[in-house]
Each structure stands twice: as C-alpha cells, then as structure tokens.
Amino acid sequence: MTRLLVTGAGGMLGRDLLDVLGARSDLKVTAATRTDLDITDAAAVRAAVVGHDIVVNCAAWTDVDGAEAHEEAATAVNGHGVARLAEACAGSGARLIQMSTDYVFAGDADRPYPEDAPTAPINAYGRSKLMGEQSVTRLLPDTGYVVRTAWLYGAHGRNFVATMLRLARQHDRLDVVDDQHGQPTWSYALATRLVELADAALAGRAAPGIYHGTCSGQTTWYGLARAAFTLHQLDPDRIRATTSDRLPRPARRPAYSVLGHSRWTAAGLTAMPDWHDTLAAAFASSAPPWKDT
Q1: Burial of residue 74 (number of CB atoms within 10 Å: 0-12, 13-18, 19+)
Q2: How far apart are the first and last CA of the chain?
Q3: Opening angle at CA 236, ends 230 and 237, nearest 5
Q4: Do residues 153 and 185 make contact, with C-beta atoms less than 8 angstroms apart?
Q5: Helices 275-284 and 187-203 sit at what angle, rounded to 10 degrees?
Q6: CATH number of 2-158+184-217+257-273: 3.10.620.30, 3.40.50.1260, 3.40.50.720, 1.10.150.120?
Q7: Annotated domain spans of the chain
Q8: What is the pTM of this model?
Q9: Residue 125 among the catalytic residues
Q10: What digits encode the pLDDT tens for the residues 167-193?
Q11: Which position among 125, 145, 153, 211 bears the catalytic label?
C-alpha cells in the first residue's frame, strides 16, 4: 500500500487534499498539521518522513504582506523548512511534491509564463518560495516536483472570493483592482490534480521538475469579484474597477500572473479547466468558497 504524508494538512489546500485522498482505499495517508509538525525542525521532519513513499508539502508561510516585515521568518518556513523536507526525502527515498507560487515571477510578461521561464520575484514572499523551489530541484533532481499555483480560493480558510462575499454584506459598493491579471484556482480542483500527479510520479509517468497548477484562462481581481457576485445572485455592478496604486499594499503584487501548463500534457495528464467552469463548480459544491466565513 502506498504511504503518503500531507504536511500543512490543516490549511485550505491541505484539507481539500485530505478530502480527495479519503476516497482512496489503496492509500495510507498521514495528515500533519502545523501543530503536529514544524517543518523547520530537521529531526522532527526526518522522523515524520520515514516510512512514506511520497510527501505533499502544503505547509507554508502564506501571509504575503507580513513577509515584507518578517522576511527572515517567512524564509525559515518557505525556504529552509522546505530544504529540511527535501533532505529528509532524499535520505528516505520518498518523492516530494512542493507547493509554490506565481510570485516567483516578476509579473511583467504579456503571455503565459512557461514552467522554465526565468524567475525574478518582486516581494519577500516570492523570494522565500523561490528558495524552497531551488532546494527541491537541487536536492531531489530525480524525485522532486514543484507545483506553482495562484489565486487560490476554497471552503477552508481565508480567500478573496469569501472576502468579497463577506464584504458584500457590509458595503453597497466595493472597489477592486482591475490591473492585476491571473488565474483563479479552486483549491479542491487543484487537490484532485495533485493526487493525479502523485499517482503518475509513483508510476514513473511524470518527470520530476516544475508544473503549473492553476486553472486555464485569465481574468483580473475585478473580473473574479463580478463573477462571484453573479454566481451568488448579487448585482455585479456593485463592484467598481480601480487600480493597484489606489489600493496600496505592503508587498508589491505581480501585474501579470498567468501561467502556462504544457508539462501536464507531457506527463499524460490534463491541465485544469477554465476558471469560469471551476468557479461555478465550487459554488455548486457542498463546500462552497464562503463555508468558513
């Protein structure tokens, strides 16, 4: 029986991943939340990884703005912690699927970033995640997988879609930026693809390296907010377009975070559907994106 360890199992993606894996009787799954496992603790990580065939790391420092003021702390988790996991997997022979981000790119492109595009993060969070990526590719050249995702929303935890629907109850109008482009991605749909990638990796069908785990198509935060309002039977004209300079944040955001998905096809797998379709599926599901709000 295949043995799989999910770290960061209490987060939005981790919880969805456990739901997907729960339907598999051929897998023995170990769920490790942040309380169960501190990935910066090398000894604890080595002990946790032993006996598993594959590790999916969903543990991360995810506070993008907080990382600007606390880059060392963010890097301890997203960079050094990932290195500890990669070292443990190298020692035990386990494969590692590491979650990463579109923020490793500068966001100045005008077409989807391929998996091998040059990286150039513009904020502390992106730099910390890139360090984690580099640890995986360096320490696990034959058994390491990096999956970059972006604009995640889901039932478990804070996310943009849930925030918009919560704010709709408090304000008649909402200003949302229309100059940042990306791919809204339902965490449950991503979890399904991660399990498929794990199966392909263990079967030797998926080559190690970098994959882009985002939905197809593209929109802006303004476009996503309007789509969410429409699906929730709210008037989308309550959303007003604005620009990033009018809503400044501590961390710079990439203006263009659209990712290409060619490596899924090379592995015999399919990329995720268009973001409109997965957003509609999320709203129709038993665990819609506003469940925990």
Answers
A1: buried
A2: 37
A3: 160
A4: yes
A5: 110
A6: 3.40.50.720
A7: 2-158+184-217+257-273
A8: 0.97
A9: yes
A10: 999 999 999 999 999 999 999 999 999
A11: 125
